[in-house]
UniProtKB/TrEMBL annotation:
Any coiled-coil regions, as ranges: none
Gene, per the UniProt record: cdsA
TM stretches of this protein: 12-31, 43-60, 96-118, 130-148, 154-177, 198-217, 223-241
GO-annotated cellular components: plasma membrane
Name this protein carries in UniProt: Phosphatidate cytidylyltransferase
Enzyme class: transferase
Protein source organism: Chryseobacterium taklimakanense
A Pfam family of this chain: CTP_transf_1
Lineage of the species this protein comes from: Bacteria, Pseudomonadati, Bacteroidota, Flavobacteriia, Flavobacteriales
Single GO MF descriptor: phosphatidate cytidylyltransferase activity
Length: 288
C-alpha cells in the first residue's frame, strides 16, 4: 500500500474517531468509562474550542500576519467573541426569538466571503486580516455550539454528528458524480476538480440520505431533507471559500495537524459554512 495513502487512512480514522467520541452518546459512554467525571457536553465544547483555536492559528499562518498589534490581538479578540457565543448559545436551546445579533453575525459572514472573492486587496491590510479571521473562525464555530439539543443530564441528540455525516457524504457523492459525469467546471481557477455535474449528483444523493436520516431519526430537530439540501449547496461553497483564501495568499494547505489531510481548516471548511446556515434553519423552523 502506498505510504501516503496509509498515512491518510490512519489520520482520517483518528479524525473521524474524535468526531464520534465528542458528538455521540456512544462516544461519551466510552469516554465515561475511562474518565467518569467528563460529560458529553464538555467533550463537544472542548472539541469545538480546540478546532477554533487551531483554526485561528492556521488563519494567522495562511494570511501571513505581520508583527503589528493585530497579530497579538487576534487570539484574545477571537476568544472574547467565542465566549459571547458560548454564553448565548451553548446549552440554551431554541426558546428565544431570533434577533438582530444573529442577523448581524450571519450578515458579517456573508460580507467576509464576498470580500474574499471580490475585494481581496482589503485582506492584505493587517486590520483586514484581523477582522476576517474573527468572522471566519470564532463566529462560525460559535454558531456550531447552538446546534445540539441538550438534555438535563448534559447529553445531546445527534444533530452535529449527522451534520458531519451529510457533509462527508455530500463531498463523496459530488466527487464520484464528477468523476463519472463531470464535464463543466464550476470554478476552474479556484477548485479545478469541481464540476456542475458533480454538484448536481451531490445534491440529489445527499437529499436521499437526508430522507433516510429523517425517517430513522425522527427525534432530530428540523427536517433532514431540508438539512441535506442546505449541506449539499453550502458545503461546496465552504470548500471554495477556503480554497480562495489559500489561493489569495499562495498557500497549499492550511496546516499539517492531520497528516495527509492538511489542517483543521482544510478538513472543516464545509462545516464552517454549513454550521451557521443549519443553525439559521433550525431557528426559523422553530419560530415558524
Amino acid at each position: 500500500m502506498d505510504k501516503n495513502l496509509l498515512q491518510r487512512l490512519i489520520s482520517g480514522f483518528f479524525y473521524g474517531l474524535v468526531i464520534v467520541l465528542c458528538t455521540t452518546p456512544l462516544g461519551a459512554e466510552y469516554i465515561g468509562k475511562v474518565f467518569p467525571d467528563i460529560k458529553q457536553y464538555q467533550l463537544y465544547y472542548g472539541m469545538i474550542t480546540f478546532f477554533m483555536l487551531v483554526g485561528i492559528w492556521e488563519c494567522i499562518r495562511i494570511m501571513k500576519f505581520g508583527k503589528g498589534w493585530e497579530r497579538f490581538a487576534v487570539i484574545p479578540v477571537s476568544m472574547y467573541v467565542f465566549y459571547l457565543f458560548s454564553k448565548r448559545y451553548f446549552m440554551q436551546g431554541f426558546s428565544y426569538n431570533f434577533n438582530l445579533s444573529e442577523f448581524l453575525a450571519l450578515f458579517l459572514i456573508v460580507i467576509a466571503a464576498v470580500t474574499l472573492f471580490r475585494f481581496k486587496d482589503e485582506l492584505y491590510f493587517e486590520s483586514g486580516k484581523l477582522i476576517f479571521t474573527v468572522i471566519y473562525v470564532p463566529l462560525t464555530f460559535g454558531f456550531a455550539l447552538g446546534l445540539p439539543e441538550f438534555s438535563a443530564e448534559g447529553y445531546f441528540s445527534l444533530e452535529v454528528f449527522m451534520l458531519f455525516v451529510l457533509i462527508w457524504s455530500s463531498d463523496s457523492f459530488a466527487y464520484f458524480s464528477g468523476r463519472l459525469f463531470g464535464k463543466h467546471k464550476m470554478a476552474p481557477k479556484i477548485s479545478p476538480k469541481k464540476t456542475w455535474e458533480g454538484f448536481a449528483g451531490g445534491v440529489i444523493l445527499t437529499l436521499i440520505l437526508g430522507f433516510f436520516i429523517e425517517k430513522y431519526y425522527p427525534e432530530l430537530r428540523g427536517n433532514w431533507m431540508v438539512v441535506g439540501f442546505l449541506v449539499s449547496v453550502f458545503a461546496p461553497l465552504g470548500d471554495l471559500v477556503e480554497s480562495q483564501l489559500k489561493r489569495n495568499f499562495g498557500v497549499k494547505d492550511s496546516g499539517n495537524i492531520i497528516p495527509g489531510h492538511g489542517g483543521i481548516l482544510d478538513r472543516l471548511d464545509s462545516f464552517i459554512i454549513c454550521a451557521p446556515v443549519v443553525y439559521l434553519y433550525f431557528i426559523l423552523e422553530n419560530i415558524i
